[in-house]
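debug: dumping io for the single-chain case to check the tokenizer round-trip. Nothing else runs in this session.
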Amino acid sequence: MAGTPKRRSQDKSPDTVSFGQKSYCVRCGTAFGKKSGFFPVSHSPMYRGSGYLPWCNDCIDKIYEEYVRTLGDKEAMRRMCMKMDLYWNESIYNMVERKAGVRSRVRSYIGKTNIYRYIDKTFDDTLKEESAGNPAETNSSIPVSNDLGDETEDIQTDPAIVEFWGPGFDHNFYMELERHYKEWTGGIKDLKQNERTLYKQICMQEVIIARDAANGRPTDKSVNLLNTLLGSMNLKPSQQKEEADAELEKMPLGVGIQKWEFNRPLPETPKKQRDVRKTVQNITTWYLGHACKMVGLKNSYTKMYEQAMDRLRVKRPEYDEEDDDSVLSDIFGGAGSGQSKGGEE
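debug: decoded output
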């Protein structure tokens, strides 16, 4: 077809896609070994199959420059949003204006639309908000920090924390992330890179789930992703139970008892519930006390044994002003007196 540019093979990355698959820009026809880094990311339903816009970075810059010459900078940015089904909002545009540098302005704007606050918004949302008379409306559970242009947040976050978690969140969100991270890691700093990354993702999902649930938003996808991350680190309760059972089978009994005593000791028993069945008392009295009595020791154990024996001994009743015949008659039921009379006869 006349006027159609020929596809130029320009493998800018050694990481080519398997089976020889390549990504082509629909405007210039340039072939790329991969989309990451050469095509802007897009969360629009129109490009959800690939997750990227069909125009390469160079072509987007050229299209934007053409619109700027005819429409001006601000209207050119809005026109680009309309063409690429991006969310248009003047607050995002103001962020790009304040952070303008050597990076492409239009690609900087596209990057801002991919932060969590605007990640599910498209140009349709822009039209709805403008028709409702509230173009700055947002419904995200995670507000953006002042580092990205949100002037409602006055608290400055520690730059080290922002660098660790990445820009795009408010101060309270960073503090929640830090608290979850300390709870998961216990303050350990010498973690491996893969462990640190997974812990960060787990904390991120926990905070997102909590905020979405508080605002009545669905959390199914976030919960599934969190379960996947927990499974990657063998942190699911079922996985930990299996590991504990396997470890217990190989563990000697004495080592297991010592481990439980040091790691999970039993709580102190209340006084009312101590030795309910008198087991300790019986051993102390009838074993230690008896042994001490046998060897002639006089201590508290011997005293306990003697007191217990005194309670069990049978004592002969004492009769006042009675002779021996009366005692025998009382004990033997009169047998003694009958025998005496028979003997006299």
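debug: round-trip ok. Residues 1-140 form one domain.
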